[in-house]
């Protein structure tokens, strides 16, 4: 049995009619033609699936019972199987499906919903009711298609923007490295002596150039992690040793800022396998944020404890805190929050984005809890060893809330 020809009503929406009863087919075709639609007919389940793929109709009307052919289901459930297969295939998934049947059993409605059906009509039905159901579903499909097209264009624009940014940033790195090398030679006296005023200006220029190089490195590294092109270098990490190493590295800065830091590692904190350089940089970024954004000397606590999913690191401070409205968006690219009474600090807005991506590249997650005026606690949950993640197939909108920060335990 094969699909019948499409009715010739130029420009009208095409409706797939799948039924094995000729009387029902003729009635539906007449009704659809009278309502201004075209129709393509299938008289068994395999033909209905083939017609959906070939013609991509605007809507499908399926009888519940029809010859199942080789689909492996009873004839009485063939329509449900056709719907399941249409909805499972990305090429046909957005085709609305209306079931038409003489049966009124509640179980049929349940099966129709479970199969992915969009509406259900009992025989006999009024022509105007059929028209209303079709028009409603076509409007919904049109809105969904328009939204999907807008999302596709947005992703394409984001890709062009990101590719352009990577190209510009990569091209900036080489000349900036040369500028830094020249500035270093000048500071070392290779081009003669400088006055104190000239030396201060030279040091300032070198510092700004190093800040710019750091921003370029951040941009490139964030892009590599987003695209899963930054390979992890896993090794065993003892949490007590890692946290102590971070505090030691920051000892001079803590002294300069009047800050204090303590380490607290629970007995159940396990040794994990992770990219030490990345995880250490994540924790260091959180320490740096706490020091930079506090108006006065800050007290920090770095802790680790066992977690059902592996290990949980925390970095707590008694700084100005983060307003509740910003506790999710701070993990997005280029987002910055200025808490009340906190000093204004120049920042790329990439530090916490890097933290999120680095943690997620291990199969973990990061989030924050904070109260204004009472400090913040950042949580980093990591598995015992990195979890392989699929390579992303498309860009995530910058306006979407990162999944790692909107699910608190």
Could you please describe the fold and organization of this structure?
- Helix content is 44%, strand content 17%.
- With 409 residues, it is of the alpha/beta class.
- The longest helix has 61 residues, at 127-187.
Helical content band:
40-55%
Rg over C-alpha atoms, rounded to the nearest angstrom: 31 Å
Largest sheet: 5 strands, parallel
Mean pLDDT across all residues, rounded? 81
Keywords:
10 helices; 5-stranded mixed beta sheet; Heat Shock Protein 90; 12 strands; about 400 residues; about 45% helix; disordered N terminus; disordered C terminus
Short description:
The chain is of the alpha/beta class and 409 residues long. The chain has helices at residues 22-34, 45-55, 78-88, 106-115, 127-187, 196-226, 239-249, 251-257, 276-292, 351-360; strands at 14-18, 38-42, 59-63, 97-101, 119-122, 234-237, 260-265, 272-275, 299-307, 310-317, 365-371, 375-382.
Secondary-structure topology with pairs:
Layout: E1 14-18, H1 22-34, E2 38-42, H2 45-55, E3 59-63, H3 78-88, E4 97-101, H4 106-115, E5 119-122, H5 127-187, H6 196-226, E6 234-237, H7 239-249, H8 251-257, E7 260-265, E8 272-275, H9 276-292, E9 299-307, E10 310-317, H10 351-360, E11 365-371, E12 375-382
Parallel strand pairs: 1-2, 1-3, 3-4, 4-5, 7-9
Antiparallel strand pairs: 6-8, 9-10, 10-12, 11-12
Helix pairs in contact: 2-3, 3-4, 5-6, 6-10, 9-10
């Amino acid at each position: 049995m094969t699909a019948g020809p499409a009715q010739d009503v130029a420009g009208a929406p095409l409706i797939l009619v799948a039924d094995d009863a000729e009387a029902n087919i003729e009635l539906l075709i007449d009704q659809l033609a009278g309502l201004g639609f075209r129709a393509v007919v299938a008289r068994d389940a395999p033909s209905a699936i083939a017609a959906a793929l070939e013609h991509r109709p605007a809507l499908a009307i399926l009888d519940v019972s029809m010859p199942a052919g080789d689909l492996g289901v009873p004839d009485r459930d063939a329509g449900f199987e056709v719907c399941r297969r249409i909805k499972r295939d990305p090429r046909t998934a957005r085709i609305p499906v209306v079931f038409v049947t003489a049966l009124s059993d509640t179980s049929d409605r349940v099966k129709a919903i479970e199969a992915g059906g969009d509406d259900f009509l009992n025989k006999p039905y009024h022509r105007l009711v059929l028209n209303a159901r079709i028009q409603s579903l076509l409007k919904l499909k049109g809105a969904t298609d328009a939204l999907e097209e807008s999302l596709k264009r947005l992703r394409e624009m984001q890709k062009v923007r990101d590719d352009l940014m990577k190209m510009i940033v990569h091209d900036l790195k080489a000349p900036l490295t040369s500028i830094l090398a020249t500035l270093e030679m000048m500071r070392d006296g290779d081009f003669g002596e400088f006055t104190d005023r000239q030396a201060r200006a030279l040091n300032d220029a070198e510092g700004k150039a190093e800040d710019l190089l750091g921003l370029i490195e951040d941009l490139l590294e964030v892009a590599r992690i987003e695209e899963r092109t930054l390979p992890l270098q896993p090794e065993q990490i003892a949490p007590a040793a890692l946290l102590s190493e971070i505090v030691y590295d920051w000892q001079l800065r803590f002294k300069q800022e009047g800050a204090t830091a303590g380490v607290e590692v629970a007995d159940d904190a396990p040794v994990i396998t992770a990219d030490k350089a990345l995880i250490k940089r994540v924790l260091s970024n959180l320490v740096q944020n706490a020091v930079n954004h506090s108006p006065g000397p800050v007290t920090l606590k770095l802790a680790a404890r066992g977690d059902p999913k592996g290990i949980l690191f925390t970095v707590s401070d008694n700084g100005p805190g983060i307003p509740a409205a910003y506790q999710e968006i701070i993990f997005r690219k280029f987002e910055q929050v200025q808490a009340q009474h906190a000093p204004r600090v120049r920042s790329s807005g990439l530090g916490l984005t890097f933290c999120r991506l680095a943690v997620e590249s291990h199969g973990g997650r990061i989030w924050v809890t904070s109260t204004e005026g009472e400090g913040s606690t950042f949580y980093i949950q990591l598995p015992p060893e990195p979890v392989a993640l699929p390579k992303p197939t498309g860009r995530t909108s910058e306006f979407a809330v990162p999944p790692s920060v909107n699910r608190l335990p």
